[in-house]
Amino acid sequence: MHQLTLAEIARGLADKKFSSEELTKTLLARIAQFDPQLNSFITLTEDLAIEQAKAADARRANGESGALLGAPIAHKDLFCTLGVRTSCASKMLDNFKAPYDATVVAKLAEAGAVSLGKTNMDEFAMGSANESSYYGAVKNPWNLEHVPGGSSGGSAAAVAARLLPAATGTDTGGSIRQPAALTNLTGLKPTYGRVSRWGMIAYASSLDQGGPLARTAEDCAILLQGMAGFDPKDSTSIDEPVPDFSADLNTSLKGLRIGVPAEFFSEGLDPRIAELVHNSIKELEKLGAVIKTISLPNMQHAIPAYYVIAPAEASSNLSRFDGVRFGHRCEDPKDLTDLYKRSRAEGFGPEVQRRILVGAYALSAGYYDAYYLQAQKIRRLIKNDFVAAFNEVDVILGPTTPNPAWKIGAKNSDPVSAYLEDVYTITANLAGLPGLSMPAGFVDGLPVGVQLLAPYFQEGRLLNVAHQYQLNTDWHTRSPAGF
Ligand code: GLN
Q1: 3-state SS class at 31
Q2: Is 268 exposed, middle or buried (0-12, 13-18, 19+ CB in 10 A)?
């Protein structure tokens, strides 16, 4: 049963082949058996899950239907969950029980999805390896000595190991697409504003976006359907109609114009990944797509701009965790300054502290124009590059990451080398565009992803291309040995 995709689960439940309660119990048993190797969950909510599964079964018995009704999922541990710990993988929020559900959590619960628990992540979503969690590193099920990617590494590892069919993630600079690539999943970052950020603990507000991680594009369409939509409680949520994301999955790719940016194949890309990306291009050509080389001339500035904007916004967002309003409070403070200093020094891990320092510096008087403002200008140039490119092509294709999953600890002494792993994903966040990563082969037994980008609100097009690719390839069906 654990091999079923969301789409297959929906059919099985509708045909009464099994109940949501049976499925939920099977998956909870798998989590108990296998998660000790992976560390993909921070909190399990077994009782709540069984309650939700029974309620979903009752709704089906009453004649209700729906692709998510009774489907087991899990939430990255930065989506607030009423009465359940929401830790952001930080000591700072180790004992924080959210007083409300995030919009994404509430919407999926309403659609009947069964939440099994909260998944591990990089602390406050800062990272590309899931090594910065207060609860310990997550392991990649394809090789337990390697990272699963981050920051949604717990969601990715759990889905890749077939502990559950799909999970939510968030993507500020690549945190859905990059772990999807490194664990052989399909992951989609929607257009900025498509999915509500209300109740999603903020890292960098102008970049953060929630989205689905699953094995197939078909399943990403199902999960995204339950997550997307205008939310008056989020001022950056966009009041655009939500299409049926599954409607265009079967559209032919004949005549589809795919742009391949020359800059995506520069120095730093593992040549074995470049070859797999070229294979995927050939596959899509066979399906009727027309390939065109394009240019994104400002791409080289994306990482420096991101690592000014994201820490700047983070330093502001994280100021609320001061031991008074929220978060860990130190023992016996001497005075208020001591309370702030020690609570924050004890509550935040080293990567979060590094980002707060960088961000506070970039925003400080006298430096704002030189850093933050300058980075925002670069952001506009990058957006303009995409607008120009999408005048010529329908989607853009390239590698998701320059390298496959690295060994746990390998980049610890050099944070910049980890930052460089985001080189292909970050531009979509800076421009607010939707992006998807899909499985495209293996290097040394480790999965490799291909990234697709589309114009604003064209998630359906990304899902269509990925689905057609998946109908003609079997990379996404491979599962890690031992699970
Ligand atoms: N790796 C990037 C960072 O560390 C992106 C993280 C994310 O998308 N949440 O900021």
Answers
A1: helix
A2: exposed
Which of 76, 90, 128 maximizes ligand 1 atoms within 8 Å of its Cβ, making it the mutation to test the pocket? Answer: 128
- In which domain, by residue range, is 459 found? 1-483
Mean pLDDT of the residues in the chain: 97
Say if CB 57 and CB 31 are below 8 A apart. Answer: no
pLDDT value at residue 367: 87
- Phi, psi angles (nearest 5°) of residue 176: -100, -50
Cβ 476 vs Cβ 470: under 8 Å: yes
Active-site annotation holds for 76: yes
In this structure, the residues whose C-beta lies within 6 A of any atom of ligand 1 are: 125-128, 151, 171-175, 203, 310, 422
Task: For residues 8 and 1, give the distance between their C-alpha atoms in angstroms, rounded to a whole number.
Answer: 10
Residues in Cβ contact with 366 at an 8 Å cutoff, skipping those fewer than 6 apart: none
Count other C-beta atoms under 10 Å from residue 290's C-beta: 14
Q: What is the CATH number of the domain that holds 166?
A: 3.90.1300.10
DSSP per-residue string spanning 432-453: T--EEEEEEEEETTEEEEEEEE
Integer angstrom CA distances of residue 54 from 2, 6, 50, 61, 257: 19, 18, 6, 10, 47
Cα Rg of the chain, angstroms = 21
Q: Given the DSSP bridges, would you call strands 186-189 and 435-443 parallel, antiparallel or unpaired?
A: antiparallel
Mutate to test the pocket of ligand 1, among 175, 182, 416 (most ligand atoms within 8 A of CB): 175
pLDDT tens per residue, range 397-422: 999 999 999 999 999 888 888 889 99
Count: domains in the chain: 1
Distance (Å) of CA 273 to CA 163, 280, 400, 410, 444: 28, 11, 9, 20, 11
Q: State the pLDDT at residue 43.
A: 98
Instruction: Count the alpha carbons within 13 Å of 124 in the hemisphere toward its beta carbon.
Output: 29
Structure-derived torsion over alpha carbons of residues 127, 165, 237, 112, reported in degrees to the nearest 10: -140
The two structure tokens encoding residue 452: 């697709």
Q: What are phi and psi of 331, to 5 degrees?
A: -80, 145
Distance, CA of 258 to CA of 220 (rounded, Å)? 21
Burial tier of 265 (Cβ tally within 10 Å: 0-12, 13-18, 19+): middle
Low-confidence ranges of the chain (pLDDT < 50): none
Residue 151 designated active-site: yes
Task: Dig out the tokens for 173 from the structure.
Answer: 């600079």
